[in-house]
Specification:
The structure holds two protein chains of two kinds.
Chain A: E1 3-8, E2 14-20, E3 27-32, H1 35-40, E4 43-45, E5 51-56, E6 62-65, E7 73-77, E8 85-90, E9 93-99, E10 111-116, H2 123-133, E11 137-142
Parallel strand pairs in A: 3-10, 5-11
Antiparallel strand pairs in A: 1-2, 2-5, 3-4, 4-9, 6-7, 7-8, 8-9
Chain B: E1 2-5, E2 11-15, E3 21-25, H1 28-33, E4 37-41, E5 46-49, E6 54-57, E7 64-69, E8 75-80, E9 88-92, H2 98-101, E10 105-109
Classes of the chains: A mainly beta, B mainly beta.
Chain lengths: ~140, ~120
């Protein structure tokens, strides 16, 4: 792994470590144009070869929200309201993207900011894209255990 | 009048007029919310939601609370925890129709360090 990016929601209930692979040219930061992400100012990153570890202190205080095709689940901290990551379950496997806005040790110069718009994409191609681009190694752990 | 609505429609915030400018703050909470703030007098803003449809979060000196939709998590506004005459409210303009704010100037505010505008 090239480096570990770390982040958390504001109150610390949801913490994450993103192991970023070596040799990647910067960190993509996609400002998604969908109705949900616009309202949340969501800017997302992923790398198919990254490893995401999510540590949740109190799982009862995480709200999940899905809309539209309901193929993506937004994980919202029920205490502070931040949305640190999104998952998509495809063929029984969780893929994820991370909200750049919750990362804490990222040099802004590393970010490759770009708008993203997936409006009109079929569900099939949407899932295929996520399988290609989203983080495939997602580990969830309960901090209490 | 304009209405800012969360994603699921459970919370609506009515504001009297289009904002003249917006604030993008880099402090620990605002950057996580990805919010764009438009400021109004509390008396000019009307929040429409059923009881229990919102949750709030206060931190630090807890003089402000950030209000969001319980269901979809969209942060709709901040308000004083102990409102007084003349209190202001920050309405999250991300919940407005994007076309309404397309040409409104966004001012970057350094809430993380110097507490000054960066432009």
């Amino acid at each position: 792994m090239g480096m570990n990016l770390t982040g958390q929601c504001h109150c610390g209930n949801i913490a994450l470590t993103l192991g970023w692979p070596e040799g990647s040219a910067g960190i993509p930061a996609r400002a998604c144009g969908c109705s949900f992400c616009v309202k949340h100012g969501g800017v997302w990153t992923s790398n198919a070869n990254a490893r995401l570890t999510v540590t949740i202190r109190d799982p009862a205080r995480v709200t999940r929200y899905a809309f539209g095709t309901k193929t993506a689940t937004f994980h919202v901290c029920a205490r502070c309201g931040a949305v640190p990551f999104v998952t998509s379950e495809i063929d029984g496997h969780d893929y994820a993207v991370v909200n750049v806005n919750v990362l804490e040790n990222v040099d802004p110069a590393w970010l490759r900011r770009a708008p993203a718009d997936f409006e009109g994409e079929s569900v099939e191609s949407r899932l295929a894209r996520r399988k290609r681009n989203w983080i495939a190694d997602v580990r969830m752990q309960d901090a209490g255990n | 009048m304009l209405t800012a609505t969360c994603h699921c429609g459970s919370v609506r915030v009515e504001i009297p007029r289009k904002p003249r400018r917006l604030t993008s703050c880099n402090c620990s909470i605002c950057r996580r919310y990805g919010a764009l703030w438009a400021y109004y007098k509390a008396s000019e803003v009307r929040v429409l939601s059923r009881q229990g449809a919102t949750r709030s979060y206060a931190w630090g000196d807890k003089s402000l609370r950030f209000v969001r939709c319980t269901k979809c998590g969209c942060v709709t506004h901040w308000e004083a925890t102990q409102p007084a005459v003349g209190s202001r409210v920050g309405v999250n303009a991300r919940n407005l129709d994007p076309a309404e704010i397309a040409n409104v100037r966004v001012r970057p505010f350094d809430g993380a360090a110097t507490w000054k505008f960066l432009d």
